[in-house]
Specification:
This protein is an all-alpha fold. The protein contains three helices and no strands. The chain has one domain (about 1-70). It is rod-shaped and about 75 Å long. The two termini are about 30 Å apart.
Length: about 100
């Protein structure tokens, strides 16, 4: 099960990287003209350097894709580990 969680995490990281690159490219292509006072997309104001914007977008998408690993799966795995450790400690045949 841990291997599947790692696969999901790798997928989540790669999707975050791809979508942040696409979002960064869209913002670069839709930048307002320097000589024009009219901002084409005023609601997308970015006040940071381009590298910082890319990192912020990456972590934003990482948080949005965070629901790919369901919390119930992690809780279920922890409950199974607790149950297994209980049965291992109570098994008398393991001590012989």
């Amino acid at each position: 099960m841990n291997r599947y969680i790692l696969y999901i995490l790798f997928t989540q990281l790669s999707l975050s990287l791809i979508t942040s690159a696409i979002g960064f490219a869209w913002n670069v292509s839709n930048e307002p003209d320097k000589g024009n006072d009219i901002n084409r997309h005023a609601y997308v104001a970015e006040n940071f350097k381009p590298n910082v914007n890319f990192v912020l977008k990456f972590f934003t998408y990482f948080l949005l894709y965070n629901t790919m690993i369901p919390i119930s799966l992690i809780v279920s795995m922890e409950m199974v580990k607790v149950a297994q450790s209980y049965f291992i400690t109570k098994d008398q045949e393991m001590y012989v």
